[in-house]
Amino acid sequence: MTRPHEPLFAAPHPNVPNPFNPRTRIQFELPHSDAVKLTIHDTLGRRVRTLVSGTHVADRHQVHWDGRDGGGGSVSSGVYFIRLATSESSLARRMLLLR
């Protein structure tokens, strides 16, 4: 049985701030230990950067994204998507980078 404050499934929270420049905080919660992949995608679905990849314990976690791609280059202003994938689900949230 879960307590009221425990998540029932893995969920990304809205990034803060949104819109953002130059960086934003992304939080997610896990109800149990699981393999996690948190990636940033552009509007065409292309992966821009992987922020988290590996097993994490049940808890609230946070990472920051600095508006850079996997090669370290700055990405342009626009809409991007946070994708949180676990062994059980895959959820996405929209965010806006303003340069």
General description of the model:
This protein is mostly beta strands. It has a single domain (about 10-95), classed as Immunoglobulin-like (Sandwich), CATH 2.60.40.4070. About 0% of the residues lie in helices and about 50% in strands. The protein has no helices and seven strands. The chain has strands at about 10, 25-30, 35-40, 45-55, 60-65, 80-85, 90-95. A four-stranded antiparallel β-sheet has the order 4-3-6-7, with no helix packed on it. It has a three-stranded antiparallel β-sheet with strand order 1-2-5, with no helix packed on it.
**Neighbour order of strands in the largest sheet:** 4-3-6-7
Helix content: under 10%
Number of strands: 7
* Helix/strand/pairing category: mainly beta
- Shape designation: globular
Number of helices: 0
Q: Note poorly predicted spans.
A: none
Rg, Cα atoms, Å: 14 Å
Q: What summary fits the major beta sheet?
A: 4 strands, antiparallel
- The CATH class designation is Mainly Beta
Query: How many structural domains can be distinguished in the coordinates?
Result: 1
- Give the termini distance in whole angstroms: 45 Å
* H-E string: EEEEEEE
As for the CATH topology, it is: Immunoglobulin-like
Per CATH, which architecture? Sandwich
What is the averaged pLDDT score?
93
- Beta-strand percent range: over 45%
